[in-house]
Amino acid sequence: MTPPTISLSIIIPTYNRVGLIKFTLDSLQPQFHPGIAMEIIVVDDGSTDGTWDFIEKNYPVVKLYRNDKKGATSARNKGLSMAQGTYIMYLDSDDLVGAGFFAGKIQLLDTQSVYHACYGTYEYFQSDSAFSSDQIIFKYKYPLLAGQRNGKAHLTNFLSGNFTPLNSIIWRKSFLLKIKGHDEKLAINQDVELFIRAIFKGLLITGIDDGTKVYVRHHDVDKRVGDPRNESHKWRQILELRKKIFADLTLYSYNETECFEALSSYLFSHWRMLRHSDAELANAYLDFAKTVYWPVHIKGTAGFRFMSSVLGPVRAVEVKYFLLKRD
């Protein structure tokens, strides 16, 4: 009997997650996603805690590949190269997929070939073990934008630092292959770069709210997750990436005030975070923010916005935190 054509490939990079990946793989069991012909690809990046043996013993349907110490981005690209599905979903090895998440989105992509991807809703939760609904935490969510004419809205969201988790998106594999997957040279912001580059390359993506969700484990639980704090090379790479994106805004005809303002606001927010810990790097962010678009429009109370309009955004921030006696 000929096996069913695989419609969806789930790609999961992992490293030393023997205590958490069980919950991820259990959330992908067929009983929670009836009618979806999927393959689960786990790319192990050199685990030393028994993750490989645990999966091999308990989840024989999982396709396991080794990718020793090359990083999650390389692991995702390796998974993409091995995938047999028409569609791709990237999933972290500590996150969960709610029951029925795939059906409506795959149906949309099957019936509306204009779209290269679609995304759904999600929640963040904080736990170092199994999930329960009382662990959901409040965090600002990415807007659900439906339809084909939202490319600039997606772009300005990402430029300003408002990102949707990669785990909430289902992509056409053909499109990911066309744009050559993730950039393995990056140590941080790989998912952000992928999405923005996809927009520049013509991505048509739509949001769909079908009552299902992905549950994203909040990164404060896992201290290994990429974070630029105390790692100046990551801060510098973020800045260099924004410089490239700034150039690409003109190259791909997104050289509009709305895009420049969003990018400058993001750069300014990093100046605010860095100005006491690394003044030189903070000033590099500020100088580039002024190159992109100036002055930025500060968000906050009416009084703070007024102070910014009178004193300028830099001085307004300094006065605000002086008055609050904190930073």
| Text of the CATH class of the largest domain | Alpha Beta
Number of strands: 11
Query: How would you state the average pLDDT, rounded?
Result: 91
What string, H for helix and E for strand, traces the elements in order? Answer: EHEHEHEEHEEEHEHHEEHHHHH
Q: How many structural domains can be distinguished in the coordinates? A: 2
Strand order of the largest sheet: 3-2-1-4-9-6-10
Q: What characterizes the major β-sheet?
A: 7 strands, mixed
Radius of gyration: 21 Å
CATH superfamily of the largest domain: Spore Coat Polysaccharide Biosynthesis Protein SpsA, Chain A
**In what range is the share of β-strand residues?**
5-15%
* Helicity, as a percent range: 40-55%
Give the low-confidence spans: none
What does the model show?
With 327 residues, this protein is α/β, with parallel strands linked by helices. The chain has 2 domains: 8-221, Spore Coat Polysaccharide Biosynthesis Protein SpsA, Chain A (Alpha-Beta Complex); 232-324. It is 41% helix and 14% strand. The strands form 2 sheets. Strands 3-2-1-4-9-6-10 form a 7-stranded mixed beta sheet, sandwiched between helices. Strand 2 (38-44), helix 2 (51-58) and strand 3 (63-66) form a beta-alpha-beta unit. The chain is globular and about 65 Å long. The chain starts with 7 loop residues before the first strand and ends with a helix. The mean pLDDT is 91.
